[in-house]
What we know:
- By secondary structure, the chain is of the alpha+beta class.
- It folds into 2 domains: about 15-165, 2,3-Dihydroxybiphenyl 1,2-Dioxygenase, domain 1 (Roll), CATH 3.10.180; about 175-370, 2,3-Dihydroxybiphenyl 1,2-Dioxygenase, domain 1 (Roll).
- The protein contains 10 helices and 17 strands.
- The strands form 2 sheets. The chain has a 9-stranded mixed β-sheet.
- It is globular and about 60 Å long.
Amino acid sequence: METKPSENKTLTTDFLPLNGTDYVELYVGNAKQAAYFYKSAFGFQSLAYAGPETGVRDRVSYVLIQNKVKLVLTTPLHPDHPISGQLTKHGDGVKIIALWVDDAYDAFLQTTSRGAETYMEPQTLEDDYGILKMSGIYTYGETVHLFIERKNYSGAFMPGYKKWESHYNPEPVGLLYVDHCVGNVGWNQMNKWVKFYEDVMGFKNILTFDDKQISTEYSALMSKVMSNGNGYVKFPINEPAEGKKKSQVEEYLEFYGDEGVQHVAIATNNIVETVTNLQNRGVEFLKVPNTYYDDLESRVGKIEEDIEPLKELGVLVDRDEEGYLLQIFTKPVEDRPTLFFEIIQRKGAKSFGAGNFKALFEALEREQDARGNL
């Protein structure tokens, strides 16, 4: 009997319960070819398709899956479609971070009543596999959060899609789930969006990094990590800071043309195996100098992994009070220096690799310099 009040208090405190990331949707110039890339390079499997054959006349979407990671790749079919304008401005990139909820209608009410701008009014979709409810709000730039309620739906993805079966199904590479998604915002905009996530979505600021912690000789940025109550959804938010030269965030904002998602971090249980497979399939990663590994264990303590494979692949290691993590970052996955992916393996650590920032950003600067953008 005595536990009920505390349970009720917990429920009322977390006004926006989130079960995790439902899917990440990218607007791309050619979804058919992008789907082939993510299957071939990243080991995703075919899941669902929407387009003219399913009654969707203005666009096509391919849905890919690997364990709990779902990617949706969407392309407009007409030059005057609104998505075409976004592609001209941004190039390929993340439009939607969809969040899995138990009640999409209530999630919309809770967030819009706290000031969120409406992207999609609550709606119920239905087909032979049941009903799916969804709603949506805008966040930074043109990025959107959709709230997806699928507890009464058993189809492959959602109404309007059909199951997509393919003879071409490369082996998965061990990607498990979305660990976090990082947003880049403009000058002096980080605290505005921190407040948005606090006030509108009930998130907490769990980590803060200033320009002294995230800096090199040439550039700097600041970052705050936002997390929902159960820690299933985490959104670091970056903004530029003053430096001698252009930072990676400034380069992103220039080429994306707006604030947006910088990278998606995906978890694995075996980063050496996963990254080896990805490299063998042509995925390119940032590399740090071999000297990074000379005193690795003196910096981060004893780790279970052999250092030589980590050194060969370029995997970074960092430790916090809870344990350690291993991480590596791809180069941008399109021609504009915008969206990239992080592969991360957590061995207890809850942090985001603060000890690797300097080495990582120096690697990013070398790439910027090669592009003439530093």
